[in-house]
Amino acid sequence: MYRLSLVTMMLISGFETARAEDRSTGFFGGEIGRDPLAIALSVGLMMPVEDGWSLRAAGQLLASERFTETVFTGFEFGLRYAPPTLVAPFVGVSVFGGCSSEPAADDGIDNDWDGWVDEFGETRLTGLIAAMIPEAGVQVRFSESSFLALKARQFFTTETSGESFWTAGVEFSFKIH
Ligand SMILES: [Ca+2]
Ligand SMILES: [Ca+2]
To answer: What global pTM score does this model have?
Structure first.
């Protein structure tokens, strides 16, 4: 827990530095794991800090056939190092926190505490998840701010079944301003 809060503090101070430089790029990616069958989709922002280091923040959907609740959505924060070459191997690590939910518009309860009972689209929380995700891969740059990456990641999750697994996937980064 101490290590996790230390990482969080490092990420927050890093994000403040990155915001000042304002050179962020957007990215989206998808990956799949075969044993167990798992899928992760992410869309986010990547902010160069210095000398090849980047901070990353993304919304992520994570699903696995072995999870108690199959699909979780949440946010991921991470750090990646890639040398500034045309073709660059990279390594990184991120933390993910998410939740799962189900429709709850017919149970007579205000599940989301917004003052409306059983309003259209109301859902109830069914599970929480956290994960630590080391990664490695190779990226090919098209310009200063865009690249295509092939990546492999290992998920260590708080789930009680299928808690650890590998995925492989692709990621595309693009300029946003
Ligand atoms: Ca409600
Ligand atoms: Ca309800």
So the answer is: 0.81
List CB-based neighbours of ion ligand 2 within 5 Å. Answer: 104, 107, 109, 111, 118, 122
- Distance in angstroms (rounded) separating the CA atoms of residues 102 and 106: 11
- Domain CATH code at residue 98: 2.40.160.20
Tell me how far the alpha carbon of residue 76 lies from the centroid of ligand 2, in angstroms.
28
> What is the extent of the structural domain holding 78?
2-175
Q: Which ligand is nearest to the CA of 105?
A: 2
Amino acid at 61: L
Enumerate residues 6+ apart whose C-beta is below 8 A from 44.
26, 27, 28, 56, 57, 58, 59, 60, 76
Ligand nearest to the CA of 118: 2
Q: What is the pLDDT of residues 4-16, one digit of tens each?
A: 565 555 554 544 4
Q: For residue 117, report the distance from its CA to the centre of ligand 2, in Å.
A: 6
User: How many structural domains are present in the chain?
Assistant: 1
pLDDT tens column, 103-153: 999 999 999 999 999 999 999 999 999 999 999 999 999 887 789 999 999
